[in-house]
Amino acid sequence: MRRALSSMVIVALAACGGEPLRPPEVPAAEQYTPTAVAPQTASAGVHGGESQQLVTGKDIPAQWWTLFRSPSLDRLVRDALEGSPTLARAGARLRQAEEDLNARTGATQYPKVDAKLSANRVDVKPQSLGVQALPVAMPLNLYLASVSVSYTLDLFGSSRRELEALRAETDYQRYELEAARLMLAGNAVTAAIREASLREQIAGTEEMIALQAKSLAIAEQLERIGGAAKADIVAQRLELAQTRAMLPDLQRQLEQVRHRLAVYTGRPPSATGLPEFRLSELQLPEELPVSLPSELARQRPDIRAAEALLVQAAARVGVATANLYPQITLTATGGSLASSGGDLFASGTGFYLLGASLAQPIFRGGELQAKRRSAVAAYEQAAAAYQEAVLQGFQNVADTLRALESDAVKLRERADAAAQARSYHEIVSARYNAGGVSFLALLDAQRKLRGARIDQTQAIADRYADSAALLQALGGGWWREQDQPGK
Fold first, then answer.
1. CB atoms inside a 10 Å sphere around CB 352
2. Residue 367 pLDDT more than 90?
3. What is each CA distance from 434 to 71, 235, 439, in whole angstroms?
4. Cα(115)–Cα(81) distance, rounded to whole angstroms?
5. Is the peptide bond before 285 cis (omega within 30 degrees of 0)?
6. Is the dihedral of CA 294, 388, 94, 89 positive or negative?
7. Residue 361 vs residues 151, 325, 370, 441, 454: alpha-carbon distances, Å
8. What's domain 2-16+24-124+132-483's architecture?
9. How crowded is residue 429: how many other Cβ atoms within 10 Å of its Cβ?
10. Residue 10 above 90 pLDDT?
11. What does the alpha-carbon distance between residue 216 and residue 235 come to, in Å, rounded to a whole number?
């Protein structure tokens, strides 16, 4: 990597003389993880527990969130992409960068042409010139009409490198916009999955409350006929109160997620009409694309943005180097000059001036050399930042692949645990109603069932979130949307 960095610096310095920049090197990696990831995940016998195939080289759709096959989720993400002020701000930054490039292109690639029209009142005393009289009467009016043209020759590439830097700034803002779109879509999908998980947990908690209330009613009947101890009744009331106390926090979290989704779509938290999400309405993608490591750097917009900053830094090295050399400017002025009573455009009033100037820095106290060294150091920083962005991209994909693998196994085990807890609770409840076990045994069975259900719900949500995270880590297919007609 150090050798690659040194070669990139040499390329940047060579570019000052007019050689084209080569794209930066991508850190070599044949796979994302030290050991191969299984091409198929484990499965569980519940909704959201389907086995998933990891398909290397499969295309990532531009609207990757549609893989969850939820019309409500698709509508939410599209509303967010259309109404988000975050994207509006990023789009305005891109337009500003484009206009800055247009302005500088016009200022450097074409001659500057200016027209001037002036009128001046002139009064000169003959005595100030050492004469008694002047050939013209004073004061007089002078009228001037002229057109001037100037052009600075770009012999050492300063203007070309400056435009190169501005084009790279435009590319950076474009990739930043795509990165913001990808992040917004990912956040919206993750929040929708979170909402669905919370709704499932709330439903499970309410079901558990109803179950515990039913058990308490039976226990109170037994107490009246002397079949249950007072301590057991108090303990069951305590358990019911503790379960009910879980609801307000879950409902608060759900409301906060709803507020977040409203803001994602560019609406206030009080907005109504947002779709509601449940895990049962989401479909786990059966096939997940996995891009090759060699392709990742061209797909992730954050890596492309880091690459654009690297190109910009290289161009600024060229500008700083060109500033060490002479600057030649050609000028031409033509026009007409007339005094009071004369015809400004009559024959004989015209004039022209042709000129050339050369400016060569001689002594600046080391300023220009220091600026060039600073530009080289900035390029080295950008190169290191690019390498870091690529490595972090690899890490994101590697972490998500392992999460997909482990969370699928975790759901399988938690689904089995939930099934066992449900069977255990049914057996203990029947025996308790028949007077065969103590109330403490029933409470223990209820706790196990509640915990197993919550764990299973969270494991299902994790699998949906992992799928979204992988699609986001791979870049989300934004380049395919640009390839569509009209984009």
1. 10
2. no
3. 49, 20, 12
4. 47
5. no
6. positive
7. 19, 7, 14, 92, 74
8. Up-down Bundle (1.20)
9. 20
10. no
11. 10
